[in-house]
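> forwarded from #structure-qc
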């Protein structure tokens, strides 16, 4: 049924959700995740992806064999190579990156610090870094700290909060002294998807380097880092790559740039000859020089199962389902939440949207707390946003509708 205002009623939405689930070519992947007792609707895969089925066995096997039996010999039998091997896999499956350009290490924050610092290593005092004012706090704080230590100037871009940053915004803010631009590919609040190839071109035309934060796009938005000439990128593995809480991040550095950059955390794992125990630091070649300390091997286990699934599904199919899920969430919002005065804080243009939508209402802090007790799990972002994160391989359309329906029911009346 469709109401006179053009929106659907709940029965109609339930039928549409069922049809979409029935015809979903990726529907079978939902069973590839560990069941979550008591969870009616998990809408936070953009913050913490669910464990892939078998993750417990994978970790137990690791403890019994690689660690428990092979013991320290395992460093030579794969662990030392894991940052590169896993980086190459992330690059191939999700980033459009050839081997030798991506490593897994550290946290997103630490890798951002290393790459931002490296990108401005030779910049004279007074050089400028461009960053969006709405960027994630860690990105902004790092740029503030690095600029303060090196006498650099920050230019803040203030794009439309819903449409997100555009090439025109960036071009207007670039100056002859801009050495680096730091942007998120998908905005953590609005879900706006920036035009990575076009903005990368605009930054290069101005002679600056670009660093893309891929935390909210890795694993849901197909990327072309090599083909787009992206200089630097960093992303999370515990969001849409389901690596588990605190799993290490990945860094990408363009081939022609690697040997020209030096990151500031000089550790033995980044040195030219790790076991030479040399008297002084000489950076390694290729991506080795972006490492610092011992690889966090345990944290690299869980994401491998998700990479298997994404590879099997294919990034284009993942993106198609992501768009279908966010389209459906907006349709349910129009019918159930807009009439109650809830705002849509995400663009309706699916080409420029990542895999979450954000809705706003003054009651949402309390509403979110209430929903969590009911097993409906979105997240709250101050001042009044609820993000509905839709992880394509683990989220169904029916589950999405259950979430939106629960938000509507929890609104104060
Ligand atoms: C999640 C996220 C981070 C997190 O950084 P950590 O070091 O893992 O805490 C950084 N930047 C963006 C844009 C994020 O969405």
């Amino acid at each position: 049924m469709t109401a006179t205002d053009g929106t659907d009623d709940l029965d109609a939405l339930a039928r549409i959700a069922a049809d979409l689930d029935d015809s979903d070519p990726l529907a079978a992947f939902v069973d590839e995740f560990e069941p979550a007792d008591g969870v009616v609707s998990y809408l936070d895969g953009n913050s913490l992806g669910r464990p892939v089925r078998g993750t417990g066995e994978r970790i137990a096997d690791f403890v019994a064999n690689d660690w428990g039996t092979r013991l320290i010999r395992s460093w030579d039998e794969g662990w030392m190579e894991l940052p590169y091997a896993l980086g190459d896999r992330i690059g191939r499956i999700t980033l459009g990156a050839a081997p030798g350009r991506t490593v897994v290490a550290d946290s997103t924050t630490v890798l951002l610090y290393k790459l931002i610092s490296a990108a401005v290593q030779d910049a004279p005092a007074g050089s400028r870094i461009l960053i969006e004012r709405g960027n994630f706090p860690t990105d902004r704080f790092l740029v503030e700290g690095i600029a303060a230590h090196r006498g650099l100037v920050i230019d803040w871009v203030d794009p439309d909060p819903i449409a997100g940053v555009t090439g025109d915004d960036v071009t207007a803010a670039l100056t002859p002294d801009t050495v680096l631009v730091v942007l998120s590919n998908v905005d953590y609040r609005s879900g706006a998807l920036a035009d990575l190839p076009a903005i990368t071109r605009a930054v290069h035309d101005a002679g600056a380097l670009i660093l893309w934060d891929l935390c909210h796009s890795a694993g849901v938005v197909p990327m072309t880092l090599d083909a787009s000439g992206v200089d630097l990128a960093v992303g999370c593995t515990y969001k849409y790559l389901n690596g588990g809480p605190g799993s290490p991040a990945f860094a990408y550095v363009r081939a022609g740039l690697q040997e020209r950059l030096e990151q500031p955390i000089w550790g033995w794992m980044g040195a030219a000859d790790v076991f030479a125990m040399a008297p002084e630091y000489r950076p390694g070649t290729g991506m080795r020089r972006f490492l610092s300390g011992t690889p966090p091997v345990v944290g690299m286990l869980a994401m491998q199962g998700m990479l298997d699934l994404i590879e099997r599904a294919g990034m284009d199919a993942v993106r198609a389902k992501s768009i279908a899920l966010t389209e459906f969430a907006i349709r349910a919002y129009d019918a159930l939440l807009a009439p109650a005065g809830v705002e849509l804080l995400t663009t309706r243009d699916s080409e420029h949207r990542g895999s979450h939508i954000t809705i706003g209402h003054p009651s949402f802090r309390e509403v979110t707390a209430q929903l969590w007790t009911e097993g409906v799990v979105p997240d709250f972002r101050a001042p009044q946003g609820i993000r509905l994160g839709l992880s394509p391989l683990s989220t169904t359309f029916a589950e999405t509708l259950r979430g939106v329906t629960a938000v509507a029911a929890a609104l104060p009346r």
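QC bot note: The pocket of pyridoxal-5'-phosphate is lined by residues 107-109, 136, 138-139, 184, 188, 213, 215-216, 236 (CB under 6 Å). The chain has a mean pLDDT of 97.
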